[in-house]
From TrEMBL:
Name of the protein this chain belongs to: Uncharacterized protein
Gene3D superfamilies with a match to the protein in the record: Receptor L-domain
Keyword Glycoprotein part of the UniProt annotation: yes
Species name: Chloropicon laureae
Tagged with keyword Signal: yes
InterPro entries: CWI-Assembly_Regulator, Rcpt_L-dom_sf
Native organism taxonomy: Eukaryota, Viridiplantae, Chlorophyta, Chloropicophyceae, Chloropicales
Keywords annotated in UniProt: Cell wall, Glycoprotein, Secreted, Signal
């Protein structure tokens, strides 16, 4: 045990000083690991890292490629934020995060494909906010992923394609105000969203939630196959979003609201079977494709208007 404690302390000092010899590898870190500061440029000493028992924070570094190839478990929060030149993030083996996953304020991310591809459990929220996606694509989650709280993908720049897969979420899934990138002159392109939909986070916008137990009675075998959002699925005022896929989920206990997404062309809800509250599809001016081949019933209201098709 004494050797493990000594190694952990050494790793913390390396992270702060940015001087990590390539011949010393760390497997497990006990406590909170913070990789902070502009001097941290070489992550070779993390190649063997398999577990952090507390929080793992990567903040304000000059890393261009962040790779934890063997990391399987983070006991607390996983936070990757404010890394100005970070372009690639790879966590291919990560299975469990006990707290939140937060990816925020990283202005140079090229694209995230297969992000959290092996994840089974996130104990808290999954938040992807205020990043810039140079290649415009975000593919996140796995067929076994259970998120204990909510999912928010909001206020990112350049995000055109979102593909989200999960087994369940304990609260709302929100895709909100993701905007276009810059034009050739470097001017920010406004999202141009309609004002017909209220922001999900605006005052008074509380959505009454019905839960999975309000569905018609199901057999034991059918109950095992329920893959639910215990909340609402909100997609609003995304000025740059062109395609959106929500995979795996077959029950939404609250409302599905897809509104005022100016450039949204296609939605894939191929697993969806039941909505317990309402379905609102409004003011998506370019929407030409909605795929929901397994859909059976809305146990509430239905409103569709102002879309292309």
């Amino acid at each position: 045990e004494g050797q493990k404690e000594s190694v952990s302390l050494t790793l913390e000092v390396k992270a702060k000083n940015g001087s990590a010899p390539a011949d010393q590898q760390i497997g497990m870190f006990f406590g909170r690991l913070e990789l902070v500061g502009s001097k941290l440029r070489d992550d070779v000493f993390l190649a063997e890292l398999s577990e952090v028992t507390g929080d793992l924070v990567v903040e304000s570094t000059e890393l261009q490629n962040l790779t934890f190839s063997k990391l399987k478990r983070v006991g607390g929060d996983l936070i990757i934020q404010s890394n100005d030149v970070l372009t690639e993030i790879s966590l291919p083996a990560l299975e469990v995060v006990g707290g939140n996953v937060e990816l925020a304020l990283n202005p140079s991310v090229q694209g995230l494909e297969r992000f959290l591809e092996s994840a089974r459990t996130i104990g808290g929220d999954l938040k992807i906010s205020e990043n810039t996606f140079g290649k415009g694509r975000l593919t996140v989650g796995s067929s076994d992923l259970e998120v204990g709280a909510g999912v928010s993908i909001d206020r990112n720049t350049g995000l055109r394609h979102v593909d989200l897969e999960l087994l369940s979420a304990g609260d709302d899934i929100v895709v909100l105000r993701n905007k276009k990138g810059e034009d050739l002159q470097g001017n920010e392109i406004e999202d141009g969203a309609e004002d017909g939909a209220e922001d999900h986070d605006s005052a008074g916008d509380e959505i009454e939630k019905d839960f999975v137990e309000d569905l018609p009675a199901v057999s034991a075998s059918e109950e095992e196959s329920i893959r639910a959002i215990n909340g609402s699925f909100i997609v609003q005022k995304n000025g740059g979003l062109e395609t959106l896929a929500l995979r795996g989920i077959n029950v939404v206990s609250g409302t599905v609201s897809v509104e005022s997404n100016e450039h949204l062309e296609a939605i894939d809800l191929s697993g969806l079977q039941h909505l317990c509250t309402a379905f609102q599809l409004n003011n998506n001016l370019r929407l030409g494709s909605l795929s929901a081949p397994r859909f059976e019933a809305v146990h509430g209201g239905l409103r569709v208007q102002g879309n292309r098709a």
